[in-house]
Amino acid sequence: MQNRTTKAPELLPLGRDGIVLRLALRPDPGATAGVQALRAALEAADLPGVNEIAPALASVLVRFDPARTTRDDLATGLRALVAGRDWCAADMPPPARRWTIPAAFGGSAGPQLSETAGLAGLDETRAVAELTATPLRVLAIGFAPGQPYLGLLPEHWDFPRQPELTPTVPAGALCAAVRQIVLFANPSTTGWRQVGLTGFRPFKADRAQPFALRPGDELRLSAVPDGEMQDLARNDPDGLGGARCEVLA
């Protein structure tokens, strides 16, 4: 299988209750947009027995209830749904929700901003301008509960993760690599470079909606001073750090 394909997604079994629809062997912009288009089509189709649709960067996992459908029946429905379309040429579907999240950049909030900006061929001011001007999409959620992988940034942000791990970044950290931003749900070791910090917690168990973000959501970062970001975090018991969510559809 080549990385880009004009054929229907490859269907692969996963465990006793999953089917993976794979568009490519590794992420690229076409596959990333295609995954989101496929996710939207699967959600709209509401196939019998499906209980979870989980997009990754180059594939979509569909989980089903074996008491309600069989793998073969679901696979038949999936093949009919995806046939006849070049999913890697699909446009990114419009978002159903748009988040605006206050974030502080540089200094103690983003100790690797200067290094990261240099890798993108920018100074710090221009890097922050691009980070806040780019409408990011929730491409995948994983690694930790509710933790989003956001993208895509412009092509000059396509640099690798750092060769050595940062021992710990805090919850709410914004870290960059490979044209993406990870908004960390918990303190974590990482190879991604920290450029900013938010008071936004993607997962909070005692919140009315513990998982704040959904795949396909649009997210825009709004630059604020570090002190203001800290105040927003302290004064928001829901752990949203002053974020606003606009329902678009």
Automatic annotation (TrEMBL):
Domain Carboxyltransferase residues, every copy: 9-213
The keyword Cell inner membrane is annotated on this UniProt entry: no
SMART domains the UniProt entry points to: AHS1
Keywords: ATP-binding, Hydrolase, Nucleotide-binding
Nucleotide-binding among keywords: yes
GO molecular function: ATP binding; hydrolase activity
Annotated protein name in UniProt: Allophanate hydrolase subunit 1
Organism encoding this protein: Pukyongiella litopenaei
UniProt lineage: Bacteria, Pseudomonadati, Pseudomonadota, Alphaproteobacteria, Rhodobacterales
